[in-house]
Amino acid sequence: MRLQRRDLLTGSAAAIAFAGLARNVQAQTAATEETYVNEVHGYGPLVRDSNRLLDLPEGFTYQVISQSGDTMDDGLFVPGQPDGMGCFDLGGGKVALVRNHELKGSSGLHRNLGPGGFHQERIGLLDPSKGYDTYKDGRALPGGTTTLVYDLETRRTVSQHLSLAGTSTNCCGGHTPWGSWLTCEENTETADTADVTKPHGFVFEVPATAAGLVDPVPLKAMGRFDHEAVCIDPATGVVYLTEDQNDGLFYRFIPATPGRLADGGRLQAMAFRDRPGADSRNQDAREWAVGDWREVVWVDLDDVESPNDDLRLRGHAAGAALVARGEGIFWGDGELYMTATSGGPLRRGQILRYVPSAAGGRIQLFLESADERTMNMGDNITVAPWGHLVVCEDNYSSDIRNHLKGVTPDGKVYTIGRNVFTGNSEFAGAVFSPDGEVLFVNIMYPGITFAIRGPWTSVRT
User: Fold this and answer.
1) Whole-angstrom distance between the N-terminal and C-terminal Cα of the chain?
2) pTM of this prediction?
3) Which of 117, 169, 311, 353 could covalently link to 364 via disulfide, CB atoms 3.0 to 4.6 Å apart?
4) What are the backbone angles phi and psi of residue 186, rounded to the nearest 5°?
5) Backbone angles phi, psi at 124, to 5 degrees
């Protein structure tokens, strides 16, 4: 997720984004005019939403459960740019959604989309000492996380509050087996390069049950780079991390104490066993074909907190494989899937599949887009209860809308939803409720969190 492609809002447009939308609207059935390229039927064609927010297949509905600009229970505003998101079971039919807000510290516009409001009218409610970092004028940076409590039975948003403050460009992250959200900074600014006072590019942990702001502790042993997403192997506690750079790497973190990431550990980068320094991107030269597997080894990294933003460069020089903008990553059944958003000859994305082993594991080129209408820069990803992937597209195009796509276990693609709001912002943060009945997802602009319900088990492949 590259912020330069996201700065779409003018001041007036940002104000409109905070003006409010109707609540509890439902997708309406109507004819559609757009042609799709679906390899399988999925749920059938999309039908037009008369509210011009979200087109879904027949039988599916959505509910707007939160919107940027809403007043939260702590008096602050729901920030803009909602991105990665985790869902946690609180018991009693309630879940906590912990959401990232990808607001860059050095962006004046993003400051206006922060929890203090467009005119900073409520910034005094946020104690800057409770956040990780501030601007040089002493005000907290706008990035961080919010926690939304939602009642699945009553279909009501119970509460919302800021849960991490003072970070920058919180992009994606991942949930832990012990009930917390790891939020990742996709930003390596320092006090020498931007209007901040501390170095950025770290991972922070936010317990899902936190009732207020958490202590912002950077997990520095997990590296300083343009972090995107993480997932954890529940059997070993090993953390896997992606990097949103076109010359990025795929990392793993072996914690000194499984389940206690703040205790430190060892950071490594993936390399192809027989091809040191391999290029998995297939952008200019084909390294592998869809369906191919490669045995991998893991390269130890040093100076992982380097202020020079050169971890990926040193890792590649030591033999690590290049990955084209690693973004979403999610643990499935003994394996993980990750997106490489600009991979492939068309630079429209790949999905990689990794299976760990004591010897290092193996990785597969699971999918590569050969047609942007089929898959167009897949970003955040989740594994659905029925074993398919759900992929959020992240392409700011004037011609092709961003979609939610489903992917079958044999790599066939179908359409689940389409963003039809002005601006064609990306989908982000797709995650299912514990019972598998609700798909929660964000669209970054104008900052909406949806709860989608429908006949999920009726998918046809």
Assistant:
1) 30
2) 0.93
3) 353
4) -100, 65
5) -65, -15
Name every residue whose Cβ is closer than 8 Å to that of residue 427 and which is 6 or more positions away in sequence: 379, 380, 392, 393, 394, 402, 403, 404, 417, 419, 441, 442, 443
φ and ψ at 313, to 5 degrees?
-70, -45
pLDDT in tens, 333-367: 999 999 999 999 999 999 999 999 999 999 999 99
Encoded amino acid at 17, one letter: A
Predicted confidence at residue 22, as pLDDT, reads 38
Farthest CA pair distance, the chain: 58
Nearest to 11 by CA among 145, 155, 127, 107: 107
At residue 297 the predicted structure's pLDDT band, cuts being 50, 70 and 90, is very high
For 190-204, how does the pLDDT look when each residue is reduced to its tens digit (9 = 90+)?
999 999 999 999 999
Q: What share of the chain is helix, strand, coil (3-state, %, to 5)?
A: 10, 40, 55
Separation of alpha carbons 277 and 270, rounded Å: 10
Q: Given the DSSP bridges, would you call strands 413-419 and 54-57 parallel, antiparallel or unpaired?
A: antiparallel
Q: Which helix (H) or strand (E) holds 405?
A: strand 403-407
Q: Collect all residues with Cβ–Cβ distance below 8 Å to 315 and sequence separation of at least 6.
A: 249, 269, 299, 301
What's the chain's length in residues? 461
168 closest CA partner among 113, 122, 231: 113
Tokens, residue 440: 């929660």
Q: Which residues contact 205 (CB under 8 A, 6 or more apart)?
A: 176, 180, 181, 182, 183, 214, 217, 219, 261, 262
Output the CA angle 383-387-389, nearest 5 degrees: 40
- Asked if 42 and 459 touch (Cβ cutoff 8 Å), the reply is yes
Q: Which amino acid is at 34?
A: E
Q: Specify which residues 56 forms β-bridges with.
A: 47
| CA 400 vs CA 141, 152, 397, 416: distances in Å | 34, 33, 6, 15
Q: Which residues lie closer than 8 Å to 217 by C-beta, 6 or more apart?
A: 204, 205, 262
What CA–CA distances, in Å, run from 442 to 80, 84, 100, 323, 431?
Answer: 11, 8, 10, 26, 10
- The tokens describing 46, both together, are 């999309």
The DSSP H or E segment spanning 109 is helix 108-112
Q: Which residue has the tokens 């068309």?
A: 346
